[in-house]
Amino acid sequence: MASLRGMFFLIVGFLNTALHGSLIVLVSLLIPLTSRPLQVRMKACVEKIAEDWVRTWSRILRILNPSLRWSVHMPEELDPQGWHLLLANHQSWVDILVLFHIFHLRLPFLRFFLKYELLYFPFLGLACKALNMPFMKRYSHAYLARHPQQRGADLARTRAACAHFQDQPVAIVNFLEGTRLSADKHAQQNSPYRHLLRPKTGGIAFVLQALGNKMDRVLDITIAYPEGTPTLWDLACGRLHHVVVEVEQRPIPMDCRHGDYERDKDYQQRFQAWIAGLWQNKDRRLARLLGTE
What we know:
alpha/beta
């Protein structure tokens, strides 16, 4: 029975993504062919379709997982017309649905930093591209040594994506660890944190370079699963029973809002120290939420 339920969940979710993703791509392709006043209205239409996509996912979660308990603590007043940078830990694909669900209509439509390979995921990849989500390529140091022309490519992509949001409120999500937490990755990194991987700071530094004049705070998000980290299949089959999320607004230090992360080593060190402090606090919160203090 659980497997049938899981298959139904994934099929309905796929159809939801196929429908709304196709509409987003279609309207986005038509935008450059229209007059400027109409372009503004069509861009608003794209945002509305994206919100409907999330609304449908939230309904799927509520209907097919009625026993799922949410323990969410966040500021009561969040500006749905503001510019927001969200920093979160990352354990599972479920994290993305969790964030969409809890912030729906409380913030502008969420934009994620995505791995480049997701661009080729049916319907989802092109829809995210049309929504100006930055797709990042992770190059090794060895690869960059052989192909130095690729240095700064992610910065260029981030700037291009952020350029669309100078006049449009946005909520940009960055999973600082760059990948989902696992015991193997934790051991390979020799991570100094009990419940986290080492954070990657370049991506959000690029965002602040592009949009720092719009942002003075970050939303520090801690996601915990007291029963153990679920897979998407666990969620689909109804085996996830409790989600805990804590959201705190934190100021961006003045000396971290503007700077050249790639060339200014002092700025880079200040930025990394700020993020390391956030990560140490998050690790302690996770220990408390998971009962491993």
